[in-house]
Please model this.
Amino acid sequence: MSWSTGAFAFLHLSPQCTERVQRFLRDECGLPSDKLVDDPHLTVYHARRPLPNLRPCVTESTIRADVLETRFMVMAPGGENPRPELNPSRRSIGLRLTRRNAAIPKIQDLRAEFFKYETPRVLGSRAPSTAWSNAFGARHYQPHITLLRPRPKVPVNLRELGELFRQQVQSLEFDRFEIKLVSRREYESRA
Model:
Protein backbone atom coordinates (compact mmCIF):
# COMPACT_ATOMS: atom_id res chain seq x y z
CA MET A 1 0.00 0.00 0.00
CA SER A 2 1.40 3.40 -0.96
CA TRP A 3 1.11 6.19 1.60
CA SER A 4 0.97 9.96 1.38
CA THR A 5 0.83 11.08 5.04
CA GLY A 6 2.24 9.42 8.14
CA ALA A 7 1.78 9.96 11.86
CA PHE A 8 4.55 10.47 14.38
CA ALA A 9 4.54 10.97 18.15
CA PHE A 10 7.59 12.49 19.84
CA LEU A 11 8.72 13.24 23.37
CA HIS A 12 11.07 16.23 23.26
CA LEU A 13 13.92 16.72 25.71
CA SER A 14 13.55 19.95 27.68
CA PRO A 15 15.78 22.86 26.55
CA GLN A 16 17.75 22.66 29.81
CA CYS A 17 18.33 18.92 29.39
CA THR A 18 19.26 19.37 25.73
CA GLU A 19 21.87 21.95 26.73
CA ARG A 20 23.34 19.61 29.40
CA VAL A 21 23.59 16.72 26.94
CA GLN A 22 25.06 18.89 24.18
CA ARG A 23 27.55 20.47 26.60
CA PHE A 24 28.72 16.98 27.56
CA LEU A 25 29.13 15.96 23.89
CA ARG A 26 30.93 19.22 23.01
CA ASP A 27 33.10 19.78 26.08
CA GLU A 28 33.80 16.26 27.33
CA CYS A 29 33.90 14.48 23.98
CA GLY A 30 35.23 17.28 21.77
CA LEU A 31 32.43 16.93 19.22
CA PRO A 32 31.55 19.96 17.05
CA SER A 33 28.19 21.65 17.51
CA ASP A 34 27.23 21.18 13.86
CA LYS A 35 27.11 17.38 14.37
CA LEU A 36 24.75 17.55 17.36
CA VAL A 37 21.03 16.98 16.75
CA ASP A 38 19.24 20.31 17.31
CA ASP A 39 15.99 19.02 18.80
CA PRO A 40 16.65 15.63 20.42
CA HIS A 41 13.48 13.62 20.85
CA LEU A 42 12.28 10.10 21.51
CA THR A 43 9.89 8.62 18.95
CA VAL A 44 6.99 7.10 20.87
CA TYR A 45 5.08 5.92 17.80
CA HIS A 46 5.10 6.19 14.04
CA ALA A 47 2.94 4.92 11.22
CA ARG A 48 3.75 5.39 7.57
CA ARG A 49 0.02 5.55 6.91
CA PRO A 50 -2.69 8.11 7.62
CA LEU A 51 -4.44 7.28 10.88
CA PRO A 52 -8.15 8.23 10.72
CA ASN A 53 -9.20 10.89 13.25
CA LEU A 54 -5.69 11.50 14.58
CA ARG A 55 -4.99 15.22 14.95
CA PRO A 56 -1.64 16.98 15.34
CA CYS A 57 -0.98 18.63 18.69
CA VAL A 58 1.72 19.64 21.17
CA THR A 59 1.11 19.22 24.89
CA GLU A 60 3.16 19.60 28.05
CA SER A 61 4.49 16.34 29.36
CA THR A 62 6.77 15.79 32.33
CA ILE A 63 8.68 12.53 32.11
CA ARG A 64 12.04 11.88 33.73
CA ALA A 65 14.28 9.07 32.49
CA ASP A 66 16.88 7.36 34.63
CA VAL A 67 20.31 7.99 33.05
CA LEU A 68 21.73 4.85 34.71
CA GLU A 69 19.35 2.83 32.50
CA THR A 70 20.55 4.25 29.18
CA ARG A 71 23.01 2.88 26.65
CA PHE A 72 24.61 4.48 23.59
CA MET A 73 23.94 2.76 20.28
CA VAL A 74 24.62 3.06 16.57
CA MET A 75 21.43 4.14 14.83
CA ALA A 76 20.98 1.12 12.57
CA PRO A 77 19.06 -2.15 12.84
CA GLY A 78 20.86 -4.18 15.50
CA GLY A 79 22.92 -1.13 16.49
CA GLU A 80 22.51 -1.79 20.19
CA ASN A 81 25.18 -4.51 19.88
CA PRO A 82 28.73 -3.73 18.71
CA ARG A 83 29.34 -5.17 15.24
CA PRO A 84 32.29 -4.50 12.93
CA GLU A 85 30.11 -3.45 10.00
CA LEU A 86 28.39 -0.75 12.12
CA ASN A 87 31.13 1.85 12.42
CA PRO A 88 29.99 4.62 14.83
CA SER A 89 31.95 7.18 12.78
CA ARG A 90 29.77 6.55 9.72
CA ARG A 91 26.38 6.39 11.43
CA SER A 92 24.25 8.52 13.69
CA ILE A 93 24.64 7.80 17.40
CA GLY A 94 21.73 7.61 19.82
CA LEU A 95 20.89 6.91 23.42
CA ARG A 96 18.64 3.93 24.11
CA LEU A 97 16.46 3.61 27.21
CA THR A 98 16.61 0.10 28.65
CA ARG A 99 13.43 -1.74 29.58
CA ARG A 100 14.30 -1.16 33.25
CA ASN A 101 14.23 2.63 32.83
CA ALA A 102 11.78 4.41 35.15
CA ALA A 103 10.33 6.31 32.15
CA ILE A 104 9.21 3.18 30.29
CA PRO A 105 5.73 2.79 31.87
CA LYS A 106 4.79 6.38 30.96
CA ILE A 107 6.21 6.00 27.45
CA GLN A 108 4.25 2.76 27.01
CA ASP A 109 1.05 4.49 28.19
CA LEU A 110 1.51 7.21 25.56
CA ARG A 111 2.31 4.59 22.94
CA ALA A 112 -0.79 2.53 23.72
CA GLU A 113 -3.02 5.52 22.90
CA PHE A 114 -2.13 5.04 19.20
CA PHE A 115 -3.07 1.38 18.96
CA LYS A 116 -6.78 2.22 18.66
CA TYR A 117 -6.01 4.04 15.38
CA GLU A 118 -4.56 0.89 13.83
CA THR A 119 -7.76 -0.25 12.18
CA PRO A 120 -7.82 -3.31 9.89
CA ARG A 121 -7.93 -0.96 6.90
CA VAL A 122 -4.78 0.86 8.10
CA LEU A 123 -2.95 -2.35 8.98
CA GLY A 124 -3.82 -4.40 5.92
CA SER A 125 -2.01 -7.71 6.46
CA ARG A 126 0.33 -6.35 9.17
CA ALA A 127 0.14 -7.41 12.82
CA PRO A 128 -0.87 -4.51 15.11
CA SER A 129 1.69 -2.70 17.23
CA THR A 130 2.26 -3.81 20.82
CA ALA A 131 4.29 -2.44 23.71
CA TRP A 132 7.50 -3.76 22.15
CA SER A 133 6.68 -4.25 18.46
CA ASN A 134 5.78 -1.92 15.60
CA ALA A 135 3.27 -2.48 12.83
CA PHE A 136 5.30 -0.08 10.66
CA GLY A 137 9.04 0.44 10.35
CA ALA A 138 11.45 -1.49 12.55
CA ARG A 139 9.74 -4.58 13.93
CA HIS A 140 11.11 -4.16 17.47
CA TYR A 141 10.33 -0.96 19.39
CA GLN A 142 13.34 0.53 21.18
CA PRO A 143 12.86 3.90 22.84
CA HIS A 144 15.87 5.98 21.81
CA ILE A 145 17.05 9.54 21.19
CA THR A 146 19.33 10.34 18.26
CA LEU A 147 21.99 12.75 19.56
CA LEU A 148 24.77 12.85 16.99
CA ARG A 149 24.88 12.88 13.20
CA PRO A 150 27.59 10.83 11.43
CA ARG A 151 31.03 12.18 12.22
CA PRO A 152 34.57 11.04 11.57
CA LYS A 153 36.57 10.36 14.74
CA VAL A 154 33.63 9.53 17.01
CA PRO A 155 34.89 7.39 19.89
CA VAL A 156 34.49 3.85 18.58
CA ASN A 157 33.91 2.44 22.06
CA LEU A 158 30.35 3.51 22.80
CA ARG A 159 30.43 1.58 26.09
CA GLU A 160 33.13 3.90 27.45
CA LEU A 161 31.25 6.93 26.14
CA GLY A 162 28.11 5.69 27.92
CA GLU A 163 29.92 5.19 31.21
CA LEU A 164 31.27 8.74 31.09
CA PHE A 165 27.81 10.05 30.12
CA ARG A 166 26.15 8.29 33.07
CA GLN A 167 28.74 9.83 35.42
CA GLN A 168 28.37 13.37 34.08
CA VAL A 169 24.67 13.76 33.15
CA GLN A 170 22.35 13.19 36.08
CA SER A 171 18.93 12.92 34.41
CA LEU A 172 16.97 13.24 31.18
CA GLU A 173 13.78 15.29 31.27
CA PHE A 174 11.12 15.37 28.57
CA ASP A 175 8.81 18.39 28.62
CA ARG A 176 6.69 18.20 25.43
CA PHE A 177 4.70 15.52 23.66
CA GLU A 178 4.01 16.15 19.98
CA ILE A 179 1.79 14.39 17.48
CA LYS A 180 2.84 15.32 13.97
CA LEU A 181 1.42 14.41 10.59
CA VAL A 182 4.18 14.19 8.00
CA SER A 183 3.98 13.92 4.22
CA ARG A 184 5.86 11.13 2.52
CA ARG A 185 8.06 13.71 0.78
CA GLU A 186 8.99 15.34 4.11
CA TYR A 187 9.65 11.95 5.71
CA GLU A 188 11.94 10.82 2.89
CA SER A 189 13.83 14.13 2.84
CA ARG A 190 14.66 13.68 6.55
CA ALA A 191 15.80 10.06 6.21
Summary: The chain has a mean pLDDT of 89. Residues 5-190 form a domain with the Cyclic Phosphodiesterase; Chain: A, fold (CATH 3.90.1140). The beta strands are 5-13, 41-47, 57-66, 70-74, 93-97, 144-148, 171-183.
